[in-house]
Amino acid sequence: MTISFSISDEVAGIARRTAEFVRDVVIPEERACGGSVHDAPEPLRHRLQQAARDAGVFAPHVPREFGGLGLDLRGQAVVFEEAGYSLLGPLAMNCAAPDEGNTHLLHTVATAEQRERYLRPLAAGEVRSCFAMTEPAPGAGSDPRALATTATRVAGGWRIDGRKWFISGADGAAFAICMARTSGTPGDAGGATMFLVDAGTPGMKLVRNLETLDEGLFGGHSELAFDGCLVGDEQVLGEVDAGFAYAQVRLGPARLTHCMRWLGAARRARDIALERAASRSAFGRPLAELGMVQQMLADTEIDIEASRALLWRACWELDQGRPGAQHTSITKTFVSEAVGRIVDRAVQVCGALGISADLPLSRLLREVRPFRIYDGPSETHRWAIARRAVRSFT
Ligand SMILES: Cc1cc2nc3c(=O)[nH]c(=O)nc-3n(C[C@H](O)[C@H](O)[C@H](O)COP(=O)(O)OP(=O)(O)OC[C@H]3O[C@@H](n4cnc5c(N)ncnc54)[C@H](O)[C@@H]3O)c2cc1C
Q: What's the structural domain count of the chain?
């Protein structure tokens, strides 16, 4: 088995343009959203996305037939890391969560009509979307089988009832992809279906926007209520009762693309720490010459290299069409914890300055923490990794 990590000239060129775009255009805009991307204004998104088009870096993951650059996952790994150097980079390039994952899901599962109606405007950045799976207890969370939202057959379509929360980007989204139970009861392994629900559909209501530790995702995270929400048969995404399988189609790559973007953010924290360690002196020498600071800097280099190696390997697995579940779980668990360590060390190296708003580190510290919970908490992944390891051994 030959595993190829070679980077084509095309990908290298897009990555270089992305790094320049983020440095010259995006980072100067960071102050424009007053520190919170959750509440950033829609005109900022449009302005940044136009600038990304002008720079030739818009929608790197989107298939060419829908106006993107058509990169495979290995190409995305290189480019998304550069985009993630600023919290606004992925938004500018239309490769932020949850739209990026929804684009992949729609391209893989949607009918030709659904692609024109939902995917084309999403890929072009004309609209945003959300993915509504998680529910308040006792509903779906780490265990998707607990899915309690129901979709009941009615003449010509379905009636959706239930509650969702922590739905990223729901406020202002043009449509939601909602997971609902069409057969069985909570706890059953099957029986879920995905529905495309347009904003403004009677019966789908935004209950509230949640106040959260992180503030780096456009639109924030919302609670949604579905009360007798009627959708037509043409709004079923894929096959009825096949929703859990489609969720894996979305989640496998989406876990990796989160790792790519956060690795870019961690690299920024690393660069800030290195700059500070070289320029600030204590006890008669630069911080960079103090052994325990060197240990922090070295551990960060190790975390970055190990994260990237795991990530590229998992991307290669998925690009080959292999299942890759074990590789994506290992990568997601390692990278989500490594980026936390990297940002935390950068704060420590910078001292009090590190926790101030004069540097982006305190913001990054808050942004990377939830990644150990979404796309599967570390514990759920470790549980799955161990079970697969035991199965392969026995
Ligand atoms: C910032 C953010 C954005 C999100 N965006 C979305 C979104 O857009 N759409 C959406 O549908 N959801 C979203 N979520 C929700 C996310 O998917 C869930 O939080 C996640 O699936 C965990 O579910 P839960 O919060 O209900 O935790 P629970 O299921 O209640 O789990 C709580 C804890 O139990 C432990 N645990 C779980 N399983 C195991 C196990 N097998 N072994 C040992 N311990 C275990 C873990 O420590 C876990 O953190 C988002 C969450 C966050 C924080």
A: 3
